[in-house]
């Protein structure tokens, strides 16, 4: 195994198929750590801890989003400085207490604290697997690589949400659903520690082959501050991607805390709520198997614009519905719109960022994107408390529609369709 790990790096999906597949599996376990709690925690808040204020219930989503956003930044910085694999392993160490804390939590503060640790875990591990896959595949297949990565992660969120809902209905809200997290954690530590190889040398190899893009190149020697400014504000494609990512995860954060409570107003069973919630990341995850590679062939911009418009439509359907069928249509449509956007935004970052500061650019983008969890939780909680649950969904629909318009105006196309494979 050491011979394989130390041999000269080669770029390409086919050339790195074994490591790529292993990283896909690891990212599925990352997603599963979130899925174990998504269906269960809002119900636990009401039934076990007697919490009724929506803003208070959503504190765990906000805590998760803020800590994940911060961890994303450090994941990018440390992976460029020290390598990808050490960051991945440290990320998994932060997850060790999470399932246990959720099982034994005597009050809601323990749940919030567990989600702080989970946010650090998700930021370090998910960011690192993203960067590692981009390292391995090289410039031509970034969209496909991100589609496979995000499909694995959010497919696992969906499947685990469904399993957790079933276990909660059959065996109670605790401890059964969180035993899934313990199993995922043990397997992830084994795979990441024993079988995953470092990929930073692949990025260095790509840097030696890197050429100027037709849109102009930002250069290889930007400081971390300059990278943050370009990715957040100045560079039109990078900044548009960061803004769109925030609104996309605003929708996800709002759905995480709000959808189970909205669905419960129709007296649905726990397993039905779990199925409705699983539809969103399920369609999202499966759709990325198509949309990631599609962006390599047709370009990025139109998929992102269309995807945000579809999300706005889906949220309007959910807000206007009051039963299982309408909500199922809306959540499936929301997943389809998200599938168009999610891997494509990451591919945009890979298109523009120089290989030598790619990790930091991905980290800054993911800071903005994952702050959307907190913004969605706060927005959803405040609007739901002031007006009602449906008003919070309408607010998210409006934000998504505005984002579609802004992307259409500001973002340029960052990737030309594949030519040398025609």
UniProtKB/TrEMBL annotation:
It holds the Pfam family MFS_1. It is found in: Cell membrane. Residues 16-415 form the Major facilitator superfamily (MFS) profile domain. CDD domains: MFS_MdtG_SLC18_like (cd17325). Keywords: Cell membrane, Membrane, Transmembrane, Transmembrane helix, Transport. Its main location: membrane. PROSITE patterns: MFS, SUGAR_TRANSPORT_1. It comes from the Bacteria. InterPro entries: MFS, MFS_dom, MFS_trans_sf, MFS_Transporters, Sugar_transporter_CS. The keyword Cell membrane applies. The chain crosses the membrane at residues 20-41, 53-75, 87-109, 151-169, 176-196, 303-321, 327-350, 371-387, 393-412. Gene3D superfamilies: MFS general substrate transporter like domains. It is a multi-pass membrane protein. This is MFS family permease.
